[in-house]
User: Fold these one by one.
Assistant:
Number 1:
Amino acid sequence: MPRTGEKPGKGIYFCKNCGVKITLDDTTDTMPPCPSCNGTEFNDKEEKMATTGEKPGKGTYKCTKCSQTVTLDDTTDTLPPCPKCKNTEFTKI
């Protein structure tokens, strides 16, 4: 799990605390603190984001824009837009 101050490599990472996306454009870039919540731990760049309209499975998902959570109770439930900001991208928490 990449942390602030490390050089995890080029890619897209997500704050574990609030889900904000951090993009590192060069292999020598140092991971900054999260610009939204000042978090210092990030999900690996391979982490898949869930998108509105998908059926990503049972669990709780956090909006990547405002951190509102949405809980899906069944594997057949479809992920709705964020009820707070209407964003369509989520990370599973």
Number 2:
Amino acid sequence: MTRQDLQWRHRGACNRMSPELFYISSDTNPQHARNQNQSAREVCGSCDVRDECFDWGIKHEKYGVWGGTSESERRNIRRQLGIVRRNVSDGTVQTLVELGKLVAARQKVVA
């Protein structure tokens, strides 16, 4: 992966916001966690790079809100699409997914 592959991150609506908005602590009050999740998703809703962020989140991210999706939503999408995630020898995660499946899943979430 090259630096150019990640340039979209600099154009994200979240770029100058606190990352804490997008990563909800497990010890957060449930009502506060729902409010925080909703606030993060509202930022994503107006973002110009939501599609790129969604794709990245499905492929690489376990935690946080990415492309308007929560951790549990991404787990469900991966499960529904039969996406395989596996650890690679250097400690990173490789995700195997067909592009067409990813686009179809993204369209369901955005709709």
Number 3:
Amino acid sequence: MGRSVYGTIVVNGSGCMDQRSKVGNQANPQTAARRHEAELAEAILDYLSEYPHSTDTLEGIAEWWLMREQVRVEVSALVRVLGQLVERGLLEEIRGGENPRYRLRPRSGPEA
């Protein structure tokens, strides 16, 4: 999720970018807290499904289990967003080597 002067940019479940206005994005704090708690529970269970014999402290779970799951989610969302930005002509994908690199697409024309 990113911020813009117009509101919050989000990547929805289908990987599409969406923009929510600041006015329309005022969710009930209790609903938002429950949603966040459900996401934490899902991240913990995802981690334990991969590492079922893991044990850790509160601090270890926060630092290792949840951060690991968050990075995994962010990377998969980032892959979709980068693809969308390339398709829209805003970024350029540079192939060569093992992994592609991305940069702002050079402008062409008189204003370049």
Number 4:
Amino acid sequence: MPSRKPDSTIISVNAGSIQVPGPFSAGFSAYNSSKFAVLKMFEILAAETPDVHVMSMHPGVGTCRIWSLHNRFRLLLTLIT
């Protein structure tokens, strides 16, 4: 990031599904792996550029179309609510 401005901010929107235990996210290995990779990249970026505000956030597990179509989502909802 050699051309960054002073006090820059970079934000990544990640996925709440990376917080879900493995048995409930079976079938999402490629998706969750890519989200973990982005999270780790942002952790390293924050360490390498202390003058930049680096943030990775996720909206949480919700009722998005992908999850609502998945049978494990229904089971997960019964466990967390």
